[in-house]
Amino acid sequence: MKLKLLPMLLMSLYGASAWAFQPFVIKDIRVEGIQRTEAGTVFSYLPVKVGEKLDDEKAAVAIKALYGTGFFKDVRLEVEGEVLIVMVQERPAISQIDFVGLKEFDKKQLIDGLKQVGLAEGRIFDKSLLDKAEQELKRQYLSRGKYAVAITTTVTPLERNRTAISFNISEGEVAKIQQINIVGNQAFPEKDLLELFALSTPGWMSWWSKSDQYSKQKLAADIETMRSYYLNRGYLEFNLDSTQVSISPDKQSIYITINITEGQKYTVSDVKLAGEMLVPEEELRKLIKIQPGDVFSREKLTETTKLIGDRLGNDGYAFANVNAVPELNKEKQEAKFTFFIDPGRRVYVRRINVTGNTKTRDEVVRREMRQMEGAWYAADKVTRSRERINRLGYFSDVNLETPAVAGTTDQVDMNVSVTEKPTGSIMAGAGFSSSEGFILSGSISQANVFGSGNYLSTQFNSGKINTVYSLSYTNPYYTDDGISRGFDIYQRKVNSSSLSVSRYDSDSIGGGVRFGVPLNEMDTVNFGLSVERTKLTTYDTTPTRYLDYVRDFGSSNTTLRGDAGWARDTRDSIIYPTKGSLQRVFAEMGLPGGTVKYYKLSYQHQWLRPLFQDFTLMLNGEAGYANGYGGKPLPFFKSFFAGGNTSVRGFKSSSLGPKDIDGNALGGNRRLVGNAEILFPFPGMKKDQSLRMSLFLDAGSVFGDGDIAGQYSKISFADMRYSTGLAVSWQSPMGPMKFSIAAPLNSKETDRLERFQFILGSTF
Predict the structure, then answer these.
(1) 387-411: b or e for each residue (b if 16 or more CB lie within 10 Å)?
(2) Who contacts 531 (Cβ-Cβ below 8 Å, separation ≥6)?
(3) Whether this model's pTM surpasses 0.70
(4) How wide is the angle at C-alpha 592 spanned by C-alphas 586 and 596, nearest 5°?
(5) Is the pLDDT at 498 greater than 70, yes or no?
(6) How many other β-carbons are positioned within 10 Å of the β-carbon of residue 256?
(7) Environment class of 690 (CB within 10 Å of its CB; exposed 0-12, middle 13-18, buried 19+)
(8) CA distance 454 to 140
(9) Which of 103, 297, 302, 341 has the fewest Cβ atoms nearer than 10 Å?
(10) Quick one: signal sequence residues (predicted)?
């Protein structure tokens, strides 16, 4: 029987067949041309079945459906009597994907990326997907500054209707920024403006920071930084005219030209408040950071609108709107500003929803909330809630939203979405310090035991001076009020032979309980009680005062130790602080009931203030006093020491203060240390907060009886040691690292100097 060919796909899609056929009832369907695809797969996508009536319209729909699967590059329908024959030609399958000349990226990561877009071994080959993959790969090279990259894609047909895809890549070299020009600047030198940029021409640290590699996003950010620089210094009409980025013919050098118009410098002539204030105007005026006579500053203007909005938000006006409307006098270069205030409706929080915490219990998150359900919305409490949840350390991301409740005008929900991160760790590492030598350390810890928010850890630290083994457990919410309770068990061995102190060894084992009581968001009171057993070992070179103590009170001592302290921390960061302060008061006492009776008092005050740009001034002062009581002297192993990387740099660790006949430090019962540092980013690293430098001036010593020269019996600035120098701190992936080069300013012949000091790795 003569076969009848149905209209082809393009004709079907446009409904224009060359000729029509008589509709008929399908008695059977046969599939021909398939090699890998199962016939059942074709039937599942075919929109017509046996027993249905086939006409031109249904035939067109059937062809379109089979093409839509992407499995076939040709589809035809033929009719033989009352049998529908589906003729298909399969697309080839991808047999292999290979990369030639690939160096910049990891091959496995690229294979995984191609799989995400549907290009993978075993899948149907699609030329459009291959073109997209080639363009995306080229875009990735361009984002890394390799503008000379050339990518050639080869598709090789193989037997059994398969193909091999090969990406042949000539990566080329990274293009470097050779010149950045700013045209139109008059008020500020080009050099000062370029200092604001993250992008730069090649420098001695650009191999690390990649700052000499062009990025469209970085350039946009740099231009916005420059715009803010001008707007914060009165140039209200500053305008970016154009930006040109050109590349050399060999695609190795990039040239950037930025054209600007500075405009005139404006001062503020008047500031007014208008609208529905709801808060006494005097209180709001205290929040205004820009005053008549000041040079215009967008930063201060923005800060003012935020402060007023937050103040209204603290009273429940979550959607308060504050707009600063300017009125310019171009002749006098003056600007008046009116802050229009629209508080909106007062709202309260209906419900707090926590999501994303698959392991951490809801209560662990909710107990950090300072905004309560059913209470008026308070912007400061919402902000503080986010900060407290972030500081838990259990989540990599904390997102907090307050959407309005549908159908209401005075309610919002508080949606807290968190992304959990691993909180347990098994660590083993090594470090080196100029005082401790080679150090082996390790720990097993879980900061969120069973999702309860409790902390459990065991640690060991093996140095030639200190050997420590400890087990700690802390429940940060022993009570609903936030009182914490912790337990510690430890063993500590001290070998003083490697220090500049008089020779003795000690072996202590102990355990205790401690509590922390928060007074407010910034202040915490801590106290604890522990029992410690200490065994002392003396030598022929041990000084007489140490031998006398062991003779009078024995080589084994039991200490019933009581601790109490207060801390107030307002620093903006623990790792990279730029402002705020830290105050600590700590008291340690050997209580009656033990054989050791003493007390130690310590105070520390650290203060930070931004100076200009990225420079920060840090002042630190520490003072300590200790003594014995009940007719007993201060145990020599509880004395204060000074000198080294954490107190007075340039002098060997624990070497300052009273000394024995051999020139070794005896320690003292009074300690005074002061540090002044100017902190700034590492040159060439700019915004990298993991690496920081400082210029420092250190001063300090310990004071007490026993010095053979009769010094240090009283606190005297003449007996203190001073040093100055340069320091580098790096929060490396292996742990914190600190280096310092110091020049002692008033060293004596008996002092032990160590001008270069360092600590590598994290030590306990």
Answers:
(1) ebbeebebbeebebebebeeeeebb
(2) 510, 511, 512, 558, 559, 560, 561, 594
(3) no
(4) 75
(5) no
(6) 20
(7) middle
(8) 43
(9) 103
(10) 1-20
**Cα 117–chain centre separation:** 31
Contact 512, 505 (CB under 8 A): no
**Contact between residue 292 and residue 270 where contact means Cβ atoms under 8 Å apart:** yes
CA pair distance 365, 369, nearest whole angstrom: 7
What's the pLDDT tens digit per position in 297-325? 999 999 999 999 989 998 999 889 999 99
Band (132; pLDDT cuts 50, 70, 90): confident
For 23, half-sphere exposure in the C-beta direction (CA atoms, 13 angstrom radius) is 8
Task: Report the C-alpha gap between 518 and 89 in whole angstroms.
Answer: 75
Which of 511 and 445 is assigned the larger pLDDT?
511
Q: Check pLDDT > 50 for residue 522.
A: yes
Structure tokens at 612: 């200009």
Q: Long-range contacts made by residues 216-219, C-beta under 8 angstroms, separation at least 24?
A: 219/243, 219/245, 219/256
Question: Using the 8-state DSSP alphabet, how is residue 635 labeled?
Answer: P
Helices (H) and strands (E) in the chain, counts: 13, 36
Residue owning tokens 């005008």: 409
pLDDT band with cut points at 50, 70 and 90 for residue 13:
very low
Q: For residue range 466-476, what is the model confidence (pLDDT) as tens digits? A: 677 889 999 99
For each of the domains in the chain, give its residue range(s) and CATH number, in order of start: 4-90 (3.10.20.310), 93-170 (3.10.20.310), 176-261 (3.10.20.310), 267-342 (3.10.20.310), 348-420 (3.10.20.310), 498-760 (2.40.160.50)
Which sign, positive or negative, has the C-alpha torsion 647, 650, 655, 661?
negative
- Half-sphere exposure of 688 toward its Cβ, with a 13 Å CA cutoff? 18
The model's pLDDT over 629-661, given as tens digits with 9 standing for 90+, comes to 988 889 888 889 898 888 999 998 888 888 877
User: 68-89, pLDDT tens digit by residue?
Assistant: 877 887 888 888 888 888 888 8
